[in-house]
């Protein structure tokens, strides 16, 4: 809140208090006046009519017709001014008694009229006394209210009188002291920024000026130019593309490589808004997409690779985005000042990766045929169709067949890897129930549970919505996770399969949990990389290191995610999600 608003609010508050006190005082006076008028109108008038009725009774002996007429007139008016409890009964009795007296005047009847008249006067006199006391109490109470309101208004006014002037001059004192220090060439005495009002704005501007004065004092123009030329020379001679965007998304720096890739001169890019450039440049639009990705969601190990055309051939650049955080001495805190986008040429590495992929694909296809032939020959030997085989030979054949099966599995995984890398993997999407996939995988894995006497605990609600998935690939993923769980589970242990609707209701989450040794935090992401095997104290080195990598690719290509949650000594939980069919 700025100072002007504070002062305005103070005056408005005092004005409202003044109006409130005045309005309440007028209301109290008006209320007391209405009470007094009602007393005069109701009870005092009845007393006056009673006096007239008594005077009429006094003269009834000397002038009967006139006295009775006067008495009846006063009684009629009293009948129209009944205000107190029991007064109506007295008026009715007076009316009836007057009627009897007019039919036959008697002393007893006249005495009765006088008694009833006194009773009526007494009722209104008591009411006058009671209402007068109530009015006095009301006046005292209103007086207290007015006094309390005046006290509150006075205290509030004193508060504003003491605080508002201090707020107006306190900042000036700090500014005066800091200016005095700056006059003595002491630029370290900045003004504490304690508010967002006018003085806060002045303090921030003055602190920035002090920082600039300090910079100007500690560096010469020649040093600044030398540093600038050195930095410009380093940036311009980099073999990577480099762009610098400030916190307002304006381009501050573009080196020649980046300008060449963007197809525009550096002079035409400097100072331009990034959003404006992205409308007319596809590459800049792609770079801006990576820039807009939150830092927590940017890939840490495998940054995105862009395929660009340069000098008539395809080149590959890896995009990296780094936010620049600087310490603001004036505000004594870290501030975001911009982002650096780098384009690193990885064409040579990409060619090597493609050569590796081609080699794997070729070797895999070349090995699969002879391995299948060897496997068929081993079956013939084991069945004894080509001659008798003794027990030792059967054992050797079983060992050879087991190793041959491992080679066939490895070749199959290598073929899957090559298809994934080339983008030739074919997915057959169809709506399916998670329960069916889980049940098929559970039936398939039953034989592998027996050697360790493991049990499988399945909890998959039947009411889960169907998912859009490739049944074969998803079942392969689930079987791979179950096989890993069996491999690392202790004897007579238990494996768990759970499925539930993920938060948001757009995906179904499936988990496979074991009670094995667990996975250390530093390996929980690496196990999804190809050919990676983590150390195992039991001596088991696992398979090829491709299963989890392929599983993540299969799930990711179906629009889901695969990850692990684990602690050493507490087992592991592998989770994957699949989109709900819609």
UniProtKB/TrEMBL annotation:
Domain PAS residue range list: 227-272
GO cellular component term, pick one: membrane
CDD domains, alphabetized: HAMP, HisKA, PAS
UniProt GO BP: osmosensory signaling via phosphorelay pathway; regulation of DNA-templated transcription
Chain segments annotated as transmembrane: 145-164
InterPro entries: BphY/WalK/GraS-like, HAMP_dom, HATPase_C_sf, HATPase_dom, His_kinase_dom, HisK_dim/P_dom, HisK_dim/P_sf, PAS
GO molecular function, one term: phosphorelay sensor kinase activity
Domain HAMP: 166-218
Topology class, membrane: Multi-pass membrane protein
Gene3D superfamilies in UniProt: 1.10.287.130, 6.10.340.10, Histidine kinase-like ATPase, C-terminal domain, PAS domain
Alphabetical keyword list: ATP-binding, Kinase, Membrane, Nucleotide-binding, Phosphoprotein, Transferase, Transmembrane, Transmembrane helix, Two-component regulatory system
Compartment annotation: Membrane
Domain Histidine kinase: 362-582
Keyword Transferase: yes
Annotated EC: 2.7.13.3
Catalysed reaction, written as an equation: ATP + protein L-histidine = ADP + protein N-phospho-L-histidine
Pfam families referenced in this protein's UniProt entry, alphabetically: HAMP (PF00672), HATPase_c (PF02518), HisKA (PF00512), PAS (PF00989)
SMART domains: HAMP (SM00304), HATPase_c (SM00387), HisKA (SM00388), PAS (SM00091)
NCBIfam families with a match to the protein in the record: sensory_box (TIGR00229)
PANTHER family: SENSOR HISTIDINE KINASE GLRK, TWO-COMPONENT HISTIDINE KINASE
Protein name as annotated: histidine kinase
Species for this entry: Hymenobacter rigui
